[in-house]
């Protein structure tokens, strides 16, 4: 009898950006992602990389180039500040590393296109962090749509209500669309497979922190999307869910309806600032911890198997095109065609 084969060598992963979501991803890579080994953590802030990396058995570095030059790093997880995403995607691709980038992968379509081109030229995987696709209830909904269990989608809905931000004065004016609603947009595109958005209409205001409205902050928004297959979709977001992190979705079709997320129906449900009566998760890491681990496992497998991941740079481009169109719609006060206007917008300048 032949001896059993040894387990495969772990795939070395480096992480860039030791902030809130970077810290969560690093811990998942070190403890919950099969086949992954967290090799190094890079962050230019004094002590930030060491504080995260050393307890997890990884090497702290202050210089991104140091991390990218490490032959033990086969894939890179980018969780740095949003404005740096596009440049880091290109740098990682040039270094021959697989790339996982938190959304958005850029702040303009041109930036995302450069990332797609760089990773394609290098022949490395390029995955973007749309974690809801890896959440069991959202994945089950997509499977039900694919199986025809609700017929043809007619009406879709997705919402994100965030339990507040620590400093509204530091929130970019475009955050509601490009950082928050981009998740809902991707979800709506994904749950209506084969269809393309042809019209986007967005309304938004500063209802949570009106004192920052003059600076351009928008903290509450509703988006309507019309698809070329006739389906209509809505997405909404708020930065003021006092009861906790609230994410839900719905697909209504010719043969039925899907509800995603939320709580079981009750005669009375009380939601307050403590979030206790409904046992509401307080943040995204709590609600989507398993989904974050699953998307990082998919990235690790794609790097090891040298294949495209299930969520690609092209998915990131589609969602960003709609998010940028929302900015144009709010400015113009009317619906816009994303195929016409999205390429004209750079959220950094909005």
Automatic annotation (TrEMBL):
Residue stretches making up the Gfo/Idh/MocA-like oxidoreductase N-terminal domain: 13-130
Q: Which UniProt keywords apply?
A: Oxidoreductase
**Which SUPFAM superfamilies does this entry report, sorted A to Z?**
Glyceraldehyde-3-phosphate dehydrogenase-like, C-terminal domain, NAD(P)-binding Rossmann-fold domains
Domain GFO/IDH/MocA-like oxidoreductase: where? 138-259
Keyword Heme assigned to the entry: answer is no
Family under the similarity heading:
Belongs to the Gfo/Idh/MocA family.
Please name the PANTHER family in this protein's record: BINDING ROSSMANN FOLD OXIDOREDUCTASE, PUTATIVE (AFU_ORTHOLOGUE AFUA_2G10240)-RELATED, NAD(P)-BINDING ROSSMANN-FOLD SUPERFAMILY PROTEIN-RELATED
Question: Under what name is this protein listed?
Answer: Gfo/Idh/MocA family oxidoreductase
Question: What's the source species for this entry?
Answer: Kineococcus endophyticus
């Amino acid at each position: 009898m032949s001896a059993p084969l040894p387990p495969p060598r772990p795939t070395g992963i480096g992480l860039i950006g030791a902030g809130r979501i970077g810290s969560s991803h690093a811990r998942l890579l070190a403890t919950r992602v099969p086949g992954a080994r967290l090799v190094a953590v890079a962050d230019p802030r004094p002590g930030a990389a060491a504080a995260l990396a050393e307890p997890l058995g990884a090497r702290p570095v202050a210089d991104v180039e140091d991390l990218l030059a490490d032959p033990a790093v086969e894939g890179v997880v980018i969780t740095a500040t949003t404005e740096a995403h596009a440049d880091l995607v290109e740098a990682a691709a040039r270094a021959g590393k697989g790339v996982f980038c938190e959304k958005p992968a850029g702040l303009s379509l041109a930036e995302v296109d450069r990332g797609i081109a760089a990773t394609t030229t290098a022949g490395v995987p390029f995955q973007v962090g749309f974690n809801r696709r890896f959440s069991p209830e959202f994945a089950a909904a997509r499977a039900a749509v694919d199986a025809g269990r609700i017929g043809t989608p007619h009406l879709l809905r997705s919402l994100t209500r965030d339990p507040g931000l620590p400093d509204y004065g530091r929130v970019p004016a475009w955050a509601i669309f490009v950082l928050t609603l981009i998740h809902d947009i991707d979800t709506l595109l994904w749950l209506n497979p084969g269809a393309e958005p042809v019209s986007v209409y967005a309304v938004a205001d500063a209802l949570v922190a009106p004192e920052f409205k003059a600076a351009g902050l928008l903290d509450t928004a509703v988006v309507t999307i019309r698809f070329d297959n006739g389906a209509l979709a809505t997405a909404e977001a708020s930065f003021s869910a006092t009861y906790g992190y609230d994410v839900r979705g719905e697909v209504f079709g010719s043969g039925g309806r899907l509800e995603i997320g939320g709580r079981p129906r009750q005669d009375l449900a009380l939601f307050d600032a403590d979030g206790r009566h409904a046992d509401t998760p307080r943040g995204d890491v709590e609600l989507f911890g398993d989904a974050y681990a699953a998307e990082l496992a998919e990235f690790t497998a794609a790097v090891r198997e040298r294949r495209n991941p299930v969520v690609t740079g092209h998915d990131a481009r589609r969602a960003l095109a709609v998010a940028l169109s929302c900015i144009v719609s709010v400015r113009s006060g009317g619906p816009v065609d994303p195929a016409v206007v999205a390429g004209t917008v750079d959220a950094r300048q909005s």
